[in-house]
Write a structure and sequence with these properties.
Helices cover 41% and strands 18% of the residues. By secondary structure, the chain is of the alpha/beta class. InterPro entries: Flavoprotein-like_sf (IPR029039), FMN_Rdtase-like_dom (IPR005025), NAD(P)H-dep_FMN_reductase (IPR051814).
Length: 179
């Protein structure tokens, strides 16, 4: 069983830190689960142009394959202009609709205002619904204030929520695998 953490940005590091923290929590409590971080800034991904996903090559094909082959996901995005990043939206546009069907997703988001958590509710969850994916009940929104100057998450409540999210996605995935 493999969980893919997706850092859905090509700038900054806080979202990658947040996604990695969830993956670390999963690995610590379930060492049998394979974890991988897909940091989109490490890939040169083409813009979606409507062609069949299998027609893409290079980094774009690698990323599509990584997403398609994972069993469940931790998806992270910073919030820019009250929305998910264009890079993450492009990824959702690139992957086949069937790639996320009946797979579990957990969300983390980072941002500079306390109201931006609503992006998870109003944008990410509906996208998951389109793909007919299962969404963990919890998600984690991390404000800039929850990080220290070394870009480490230091807020104990946030760290607790990360643990809860990790547990939920694993629980859901394990129960779905039983059926």
């Amino acid at each position: 069983m493999k969980v893919l953490g997706i850092s859905g940005t090509i700038v900054g590091s806080k979202t990658g830190v947040a996604v990695s923290k969830v993956l670390e929590a999963i690995k610590r409590t379930h060492p049998e689960i394979e974890t991988e971080l897909l940091d989109l800034k490490q890939y040169d991904i083409q813009f979606c142009d409507g062609r069949d996903p299998s027609a893409y090559t290079g980094d774009t094909k690698i990323v599509i394959d990584k997403v398609t082959n994972a069993d469940f996901y931790i998806i992270g995005t910073p919030i820019f202009q009250s929305s998910l990043t264009g890079v993450l939206k492009n990824l959702f546009d690139l992957i086949p609709v069937s790639a996320l069907y009946e797979k579990v997703m957990g969300f983390v988001a980072t941002g500079g205002t306390y109201q931006h958590y609503l992006v998870v509710e109003n944008q990410l969850k509906p996208i998951a619904g389109f793909f007919r994916a299962y969404v963990a009940p919890s998600y984690v929104y991390i404000h800039d204030d929850h990080f220290n100057s070394a870009k480490e998450i230091v807020d104990s409540d946030i760290l607790s929520r990360i643990e809860r999210l990790a547990g939920e996605v694993v629980f859901m995935q394990q129960r779905l695998k039983q059926s």
